[in-house]
Amino acid sequence: MLRKRAVVVLLLVGLLSPVGWAFLRESRTAPHMTTATKKFLKKLDKKQRAIAQMPYNTPQRVDWHFIPKDERKGLQIKYMNQKQRTAAHALLKTALSQIGYDATKKIMHLEALIHALEGGKGSNIRDEERYYFTIFGKPGADNRWGLSFEGHHLSLNFVIQGNEVISSTPQFFAANPGVVKNENALGIEIGTRVLAGEELIAFQLVRSLDSDQQALAIIAEKAPREIRAAGEAQPPSEPPAGLPVAQMNQEQHNILRELLSAYLEKMPSDIATERTSAIEKAGFDQIHFAWAGSKEEGIGHYYRVQGPTFLIEFVNTQPDSAGNPVNHIHCVWRDMSGDFAIPIDKT
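and the corresponding structure tokens:
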């Protein structure tokens, strides 16, 4: 885990050696995902496989969301035996870094805490086993195929072509509570914070801005309730808003790179490499940082980081399930050239 975190930081500050780049080029995620997916599918019976595997071109491939739902596409973990669950988690590990996989498991476990804090209301929805695997198409080196792992507060979507992951968005993580503030019987410690970097580093950045910079960066006094285009197949098309990176100082550049790292480090190193390379090629100075709402915790806040190749949105305005105000995080990384490996027509 430490090695992967260090790799992401080195990527972002441009210090990775040619030897390091060679290592990352050789460490390809796609072949490992393909192998793990085949093993997972072989563990399923005929009925399960019919639920878990769909045609690549089905409209359900781009039907994503993170809200609690009665039904979702794919095969639910709850209905897998132990060998199938082991294979499913082995697949998920190939699609994420160790940091990303650990965060995913913690977010799933928070469902049990939500269930407890809500006194059992909505018990059929608040369930840490209510997460779904869906394979789109036929996994193989000669095919284009997709993977979705989704449930409440998680939506992870991938498209693989041969030996490349050609799309890894939308990448959505959320946390309720954002910070665990209540004693509980599950043994989750008070102060547990699954998405700490995504929130705390952003506070550090906005507080580092001088008055002129804040005049550009702050786009609204009140934070919106939700991220834009939630559940839509493509990211918002609006141009970037807020403060251009070109008008930040070096210290602020470094903080912004740390913020990007909080999202990038959840992906395998080769995917993080490719995203970082695209950001640098398009121009780091082309990124904009926008903020809305309070610059203090406990009051609604929102930010957006947008460059030519990517969009991050983060919002924390809702109370948690125990009623603690502004303690419910939603955040997403999207591809401005098109999510789900579907190019956006910009003509």
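(Above: one complete record from the training split.) The mean pLDDT is 92.
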